Amino acid sequence: MARKHKLGKREYHIGVKPGEVAGCVLLPGDPARTELIANRFDFAKEIAHNREFRTFTGKVDGIPISVTSTGIGGPSAAIAVEELAKCGADTFIRVGTSGAVSKNVRLGDIVIANSAVREDGTSRQYVPLSYPAVADLDVTNALVEAAQMLGASYHVGPVVSKDAFYSEVPNRTPLARESAELWKVWRRARVLATEMECATIYTLCDINGWRGGGVLACVGPMGKIVDSSAGVEKAIDAAIGAVKILAKR
User: Fold this and answer.
1) Is residue 198 part of a domain?
2) What pTM did the predictor assign?
């Protein structure tokens, strides 16, 4: 059973206190995915479940590891990262899903996001848009090494982080024409995929001296979910593999 949330003793939103999370935390969006990830841990224990934030802590090969769901989008992801850092975490790896922007990214592939286009609204509340959202190099390299060990089909490059999920659907909004032209720009600029949290997580990590990275499963082309589970297991395994690699360095 998850421990009860007590005001004044635990972080207000995530319901966690110092000593209950590892230095490295995996960050899926979906609370249900935290349990899927925690099933791969040894001695996994549910620490808290409050709102969209669900946390488990355990070990992999003797290495402490935690997982916390962030919910959807930058605002809640920022809350999770800020409060987890107060509890002692300093390395954050997003484990999520994405829609392919590049035609080279196929269903079930994984995308290792080494940077993110800051089309979100949250990161600009922290620092001007001219500041880049870049993943930590050690985390990125560890994710690449883990993907290679798994024999997974993977891609490394930038993603677009944005706030409106359905803005990708053709003719969905008054800005449909402008949006369609912008997606052509991102594709020509070799952006791999679209998602909703990396830019916020990377920006927060960079300005605070924490480590951030991300591995994303491609669940369909931009604007269309074909298979919501495609590549998810591989993305999880790559993230856990990266934690093991980082612990050895």
Assistant:
1) yes
2) 0.94
